[in-house]
Amino acid sequence: MPEISHSPDPKRFEVSRATLWFDRFMGWLIRFGGIGVIVAVFGIFYFVGKEVIPLFRSAQVEPAGGIIKAAAPAVLGVDEWGEMPFVYDGADKVLFADMKSGEAREELIPGLTGLGITAHSYDPVHQRVALGLDDGRVGSFLVNYERTFGDGSAPGMQTSITLEPWFTLEHGSGPVTAVSYGDSGAGRAIVAKRGSGADSTVSLLRLGMKRGLIGKGKLSLLEEADITAELDSEAMIVRASQNGEMALVAAQSGGIYYFLADSDGVSKRQTFAPFGDKPPRQMNFLFGGVSIIVTGPDGKQQQWSLFRKGGEGERLFGKTKEFPALAEGPVHFAASQRNRSFLTGSGRELSIRHSTSGSVRWEGAVDIDPVTAVLDAKGANFFVAAADGTTRRFAINDHHPEAGWRAFFSKVWYEGGDGPVYQWQSTGGSDDFEPKYSMVPLIFGSLKGTAYALLFSVPIALLSAVFSAAFLPLEIKRVVKPTMEIMSSLPSVVLGFLAGLWLAPILETRVPSVMMMVIFIPISALLLGYLWCRLPIGLRNRFASGSEWLIVLPFITLAGWLGWMLGPWIESWLFIYKDVASGKELADFRLWWPQAMGIPFEQRNSMVLGFMMGFAVIPVIFTIAEDSLSNVPKSLTAAAAALGANRWQVVWTVMLPVAASGIFSALMIGFGRAVGETMIMVMATGNTPITEWNLFSGMRTLSANIAVELPEAPVGSTHYRALFLGAVVLFAMTFVMNTIAELLRQRLRERNKLV
Amino acid sequence: MPAALPESRPDLIRVENFSFHYGEKQAIFDIDMAIPEHRVTALIGPSGCGKSTLLRNMNRMNDLIDGVRHEGDIRLNGISLYDPSVEVISLRKRVGMVFQKYNPFAKSIYENVVFSLRVAGRSNRSELDESVERALKSAALWDEVKDRLHDSAFGLSGGQQQRLCIARAIANQPEILLMDEPCAALDPLATLKIEELITKLKSQYTIVIVTHNMEQATRCSDRTAFLYMGRLIEYGATVQIFNRPSHPETEAYITGRFS
């Protein structure tokens, strides 16, 4: 039996310690890098998801304690922060309840003692209680809250009550039975009903500040208009708008009368009947004062807004939305003072609804029978009071009432518009602005920008890739390819700058020239090709194969120059603008286009964008397509050439099918570059979020939108999150496109596989 | 080897004082030779001796390479290939070529065969069908593929693919068939089939074949040219070259002392 030797391996077979150590180190480093990449990607998903998901949550409501016991409430009001609601008893006492300490404090209004108060209403904008007396006087008192910051102690709340002047109604007789007070600071209006039944009268009072020489002016009556004659039956509900310029009166007959009370006086503008011959059960203005919510006898709730029909004429009320029906019984209503939400319901069933999207944010029941309800100005709490004086607070958790699938992706009828539209307008000039967060114009903008960029760059990039791969001699190709690669490294901010400040002003006046060039250059190239084929072979063979471009170039340049020069002549011949006012004729394409086509002409338009994006996209597509065409095995091209195929036939029958999957990848990467491009889009497109394919108007893309608006969107706001949603949409678009493209590419490659 | 000397045939291709350069490097030095029609002429020699270059000049395939130039001339039926009035596309229709590595297109067997007809602009269905059958029969492939003409050419074996390439080259009935080591990538059995095919095809075509395989040259060629370092060392009847080489280099090469 041979003996097995156990001697150690010879030294020369041993692996050095340094090699082992390095191998282990690199192994860990690579593992760390790989896991790090995965963690980073998921981290991005987590962050983006965290920003976007809250947009799609509905509102949460929970009881927030603080039960007050008071006398029967006539008016329930609250301060901006929802900390100290007040209950007015309908006579001369106001009960303030501190929600933090649970203490209640009653305050007497001396000026009201002994008066016969017969009507009251609450205006949450100014915390004003409007009052009507049995002797025909109307007036109001204001509940003022003031934050106090004591020395080191928790901030407290100081309250005071201001009684405003009384005005005696001249028209009608009997007690005031309904009153509503509107105040914009500059102008005020009171609408009041006097008496009841067929004899009742309705007056609209315009108030103004008579400016004194010193200090504040005195509030005085400008005009009292008796509007009873305009109504065909008894007034049921009277409402003055918050801006003090409008009054709405709902009559017994079902008609709602719209009166305008501006500096020209009081005039009836419109009568409309939302529920036929039945009067509404409820009618209130929404925040902003251009929309009302009305509830019909069957519980159906509708929104009516002021807008110009067809974009012309006077702004009149028209129905814009319908909400789910309410149950029977008196309707509770409280409008938010922050956005277009409102609290409504009947009986114990309450819901928070949002008028912009027409959605129900929350639905639920409270455990008392409310007779009145109010929302605080921040929209963080609502209060309900029962007939026995029990008042309860509920905390609302609804950070993004204006968001939701419908607001982002479907047509929405915004206030002031004459129909549902897709619109993006995230900020406006005033506090009562209604934000518009439709993603559709941005998705459209991204697709439009990409489409025009690819329309210009794909033919050029692919044809030049084919030319370079199959026709150009190697020496020239060695220059062309790196040049194209340098082109792709041009910073897009430079391209955008050039597009916006140099190219756009030039092309603005030269559209006919560009059109002529677009026609002339391909035609001259085709013509030249035809003539070249007609030349005798002896003459053609004098030129080395692949250097034909030396002949083509001057001709193309000449054709381009000719087109450029002929532009103004064509303009003066074809594009005559006729000025409507003076009847003068002017040869100007910029003016002719909107007149002839009815769509605008803008300096920063899709044409400029297409040209400049071409600079960014052409090199990308060219480089990859050229590589895949050049990598077609020489054996195949040689076989085709040996079988008598000419160069174009070699390209068409052999190179293109084999390189198809690579060319497809090139197009996809070009698409990705175009859809994600930001700086050129920001600087060259004008950034108007429109939805039209007009070549001579701009667009706003998802990426540009994020770049432009993110710096000014408050962190955590709906606007901020909507921008992140834009990013998610952009990602989803490219992801879907890339997945489809990859599947197609796999199939192409399978079909033209070279085994 | 007692083989009958072939009867003499008129020359179809004449290579006249032909030199060829790849950029700075000269590959062929002043070659003069005449190739008779309907004969198989073999070009032999060690690697890099210029035999493939010479072959590829006979249908101007070297035009596809950048930076080449030539001196002298190659005449086909007395007409210079480099005459300005010669259209290289029609030249290649007259001179078919089969490559070292079988290279069918990523198309069906049928489409591979009719490629030359299609690029020539012929699309008459019955004419195409006819030439497919004729070409595949000539290439001894018809019986093997007649039931799957529209399947991918990649489904065939290596030897079948090379015969398909031969069928493709002869589909448009060229006058000359250039073969650049057609059996280099094939096993012995497939090689045998190709050699039988070459012998069969010479009645219709003038064949020039480059080969590394001495036995192949003796088996299927009528005339043999030995090239060495870009020069034509010896050219004559195959029997004579292999039995009584007149140059020591030729003898050294065919006896396998260098390759």
Point out poorly predicted stretches of chain A. Answer: none
> What is the CATH H-level superfamily of chain B?
P-loop containing nucleotide triphosphate hydrolases
Q: Helical content of chain B, roughly? A: 25-40%
Structural class call of chain A reads alpha+beta
H/E order of the elements of chain B? Answer: EEEHEEHEHHHHHEHEHEEHH
CA radius of gyration of chain B is: 18 Å
Summarize the structure.
The complex is a heterodimer of chains A (about 750) and B (about 260). Chain A is α+β, with helices and mostly antiparallel strands.
Architecture blueprint of SSEs:
The complex is a heterodimer of chains A (755) and B (259).
Chain A: H1 17-52, E1 60-63, E2 75-77, E3 86-88, E4 93-97, E5 104-108, E6 117-123, E7 128-133, E8 137-148, E9 156-163, E10 167-168, E11 176-183, E12 188-194, E13 201-210, E14 218-226, E15 235-240, E16 246-251, E17 256-262, E18 265-272, E19 282-285, E20 291-295, E21 301-307, E22 316-323, E23 331-335, E24 341-346, E25 349-354, E26 359-365, E27 370-375, E28 381-386, E29 391-397, H2 405-409, E30 424-425, E31 436-437, H3 440-470, H4 474-488, H5 492-508, H6 511-534, H7 537-540, H8 549-574, E32 576-578, E33 585-587, H9 589-597, H10 606-630, H11 634-642, H12 647-676, H13 679-684, H14 702-709, H15 718-751
Antiparallel strand pairs in A: 1-29, 2-3, 3-4, 4-5, 6-7, 7-8, 8-9, 8-10, 11-12, 12-13, 13-14, 15-16, 16-17, 17-18, 19-20, 20-21, 21-22, 23-24, 24-25, 25-26, 27-28, 28-29, 30-31, 32-33
Helix pairs in contact in A: 3-10, 3-12, 4-10, 5-10, 6-8, 10-12, 11-12, 12-15, 14-15
Chain B: E1 11-22, E2 25-36, E3 40-44, H1 51-57, E4 68-76, E5 79-80, H2 88-94, E6 95-98, H3 109-113, H4 115-119, H5 125-138, H6 142-145, H7 158-170, E7 176-180, H8 188-201, E8 206-210, H9 214-220, E9 223-228, E10 231-237, H10 238-243, H11 248-254
